[in-house]
Specification:
about 170 residues; alpha+beta; Ubiquitin-like (UB roll); DNA polymerase, domain 1; 2 domains; five-stranded mixed sheet; 5 helices; 5 strands
Length: about 170
């Protein structure tokens, strides 16, 4: 067993873990952060996307011991739970309003990947969004509304008062 100290959604955690434990399983099974989904276990689908030290990563490709000393942000850390819908992150609100989700399984990973994309490029084009989300798969929506949601959230995050969605 190896001790890991990881700050998750602003809260410091410390646990003894098996060296082979994947970060996604640490988040889900040890911390109960089930918003981070396990999809393919091969890093192909992106359902497990989180931010580690400010970078979007697929948590099924990182061992918990590799995250020791890191700051991890999950989809569950985006919203203010006390505020309800009023406390949603702009991406959460946009995915809801633009119908960027259906079954919802890919949504946490899509939102976290989109957050990284918008942080790197506050005004992404449709092509840049599609390219930026290439490693995140959705089997339900056809991506059109996901792209609209990302454009809408990006506009809100930039402070644009009138949102013109290009798609």
């Amino acid at each position: 067993m190896t001790k890991v100290e990881i700050t998750v959604d602003g809260t410091s955690t410390e646990h003894e873990v098996e060296p082979r434990l994947l970060l996604v399983h640490y988040l889900r099974d040890v911390l109960g952060r089930t918003g981070t989904n396990v999809g393919c276990d091969t890093s192909n689908c992106g359902a497990c996307t989180i931010h580690m030290d400010g970078q979007s990563v697929k948590s099924c490709t990182v061992l918990a011991v590799q995250a020791d000393g890191s700051t991890v942000d999950t989809v569950e850390g985006l919203a203010d739970p006390v505020e309800g819908e009023a406390g949603w992150h702009p991406l959460q609100r946009a995915f809801h309003e633009e119908h960027g989700l259906q079954c919802g399984y890919c949504t946490p990973g899509m939102i976290m990947a989109s957050k990284g994309l918008i942080e790197d490029n506050p005004n992404p084009s449709e092509k840049e969004i599609r390219d930026g989300l290439e490693g995140n798969l959705c089997r339900c929506t056809g991506y059109q509304n996901i792209v609209k949601a990302v454009q809408s959230a990006a506009a809100e995050m930039r402070g644009d008062t009138k949102v013109e969605v290009e798609v």
